[in-house]
């Protein structure tokens, strides 16, 4: 394919996916802002004014699974009460406390290792210069979804990478479009949408020891950002009918 045409196709695919994603989530900031206000009120009522609430994950994505931090001067009973009050705000999907000294990092769950093993010798493939998943990768995605199910309740990052060939901006857009395509493929296989985050890094992080131009750098990676057990809420539980 002509490089210029490939660039246009990739950018077009990324734009279409971005517009679709935006149309679906246009009211997200308003919804999260409402949760934030209610959660802060619940925190204050429980005597936890020193506790900070973060409704964004480490990648900057809005989330219904707030991370609580601070409040070191509070006794354990107060901290427990604060967590319970915040967790019971309608719409909150679950909470977690940030670990002291290491921010949001947690040890990888076994599902992350299982997926890594699945992808050691195989790659999720796309048609050339596009975000369309190759039909030959459908079975592989079935296996990935199956391996990720034990991590449902955590936030799972789906990150796209490209090699160093081509325009960096186009590569970033294409990697994001492909990560979104995989995210939607996993949603279609039963992985909850609010537990999946897509990111595209283009060619910024080649595989260690490989030439940045090596095609092997074109890949999708999965990582568990943090554990956040999901509790049913009116938002998660379908109504009658």
Tell me what the structure shows.
By secondary structure, the protein is of the alpha/beta class. It has a domain at 105-227: 60s Ribosomal Protein L30, Chain: A, CATH 3.30.1330. It has helices at residues 3-25, 28-45, 76-87, 110-118, 138-148, 168-187, and strands spanning 51-56, 62-70, 96-97, 154-161, 196-200, 219-227. Strands 1-2-3 form a three-stranded mixed sheet. The chain has a three-stranded mixed sheet with strand order 5-4-6. 30% of the residues are buried. Residues 17-26, 100-108 and 227-241 have low confidence and may be disordered.
Structural class: alpha/beta
> What form results from the Cα inertia axes?
elongated
The overall strand count is: 6
Note the total helix count: 6
CATH class of the domain at 105-227: Alpha Beta
- Largest sheet strand order: 1-2-3
- What proportion strand? 15-25%
What is the name of the CATH architecture of the domain at 105-227?
2-Layer Sandwich
Query: What would CATH call the homologous superfamily of the domain at 105-227?
Result: OmpA-like domain
> What is the CATH topology classification name of the domain at 105-227?
60s Ribosomal Protein L30, Chain: A
